[in-house]
Amino acid sequence: MAVRQLASLTLSDEERAELKALTTRRKTAQALALRARIVLTCAEGGQNKEVAAKLGLGRSTVGKWRRRFVERRVDGLHDEARSGAPRTVDDARIEAMIVRTLESCPENATHWSSRGMAKASGLSVSTVQRIWRAFGLQPHRLETFKLSTDPNFVAKVRDVVGLYVSPPEHAIVLCVDEKSQIQALDRSQPMLPMRPGQPARRSHDYTRHGTTSLFATLDIASGRVIGKCYGRHRAVEFRKFLDEIEAAVPRDLDVHLIMDNYATHKTPLIRRWLAKRPRWHVHLTPTSSSWLNQVERFFALLTDKKIRRGIYRSVAALRADIASFIDRHNADPKPFRWTKSADDILASIERFCRYNAPPNPDSISRTSGPPH
């Protein structure tokens, strides 16, 4: 009886590397990853029967992809073109619809809907949706952005990030800011608890029982927070809070204070207070760049974990809850870890500006027409 000879299978270094990369595919490319593993196992030697047993596959499956690889190398592992009805929408029509989506607006609207575009282009709604998905277009979505206009933006970013990444010795770095106008809200109806298949719910209307302002400072090394609530948000209250910090910081340490350029922070009262204390060094964050101040991250935790769902029938109850949150935080503090260097931040902003800027000041980009 004639014995069928196996096709010779030898891999180059480039093919082996490409096949190993294919084996890491997940979800949408599981079949391709399996075929790559078949070829790699065959390259180790052995009959189709042995490879099939090792991978838990059929012998015919192993033989098929071995032959396909020998004939067409890595390209043979991809699916062949499938049969089906021919395309009814050509590339020119797709391009016209994409250009229309990006460069025009429908009458009496600021952006296209899939039904509106289908009616205007003569395509079906499902076709419009498929094309938009393929090109990553979502006309219904709108995001916001804000770029700092501070002329000293670069210098301030390097200064503040330098303190985060490499704090000075024999010194403490503190981030200070205020969370003003925190409302003591009482809902008109009791909250409905979470149940299987139903999230917790609350009434949309409320009664406000006053407001308070939280002054807080975060020690970037330890993660500890000093915080105090005041009835008003003025330079007088800020100076009182600076006294609180002064009393809590050891006398033998320099104090590097990171804060924004808010009006409360630069009154003559505050300037005189800082001038009398040479161990205090102020570092200002750029205008419109509160994300650079780490204490804002603590404010976000406070809002998310305590205030947003809290029920308060008095300002005193709100203040007590805030003080309790700070005490529990300080019982087991965890400092935030700053991971981006100043160069990374500036490079990211530069990429954003280059991507969204027109090619040159005298020309208008193709997508810079009416809002869409």
UniProtKB/TrEMBL annotation:
User: What's the domain of life for this entry?
Assistant: Bacteria
Mark the transmembrane ranges: none
Q: Which InterPro entries match?
A: Homeodomain-like_sf (IPR009057), MscS-like_channel (IPR052702), RNaseH-like_sf (IPR012337), RNaseH_sf (IPR036397), Tc1-like_DDE_dom (IPR038717), Transpos_IS630-like (IPR047655)
Q: What is the lineage of its organism?
A: Bacteria, Pseudomonadati, Pseudomonadota, Alphaproteobacteria, Hyphomicrobiales
Tc1-like transposase DDE domain residues: 173-316
Q: What is this protein called?
A: IS630 family transposase
Matching PANTHER family: MECHANOSENSITIVE CHANNEL MSCK, POTASSIUM CHANNEL RELATED
Which organism is this entry from? Bradyrhizobium quebecense
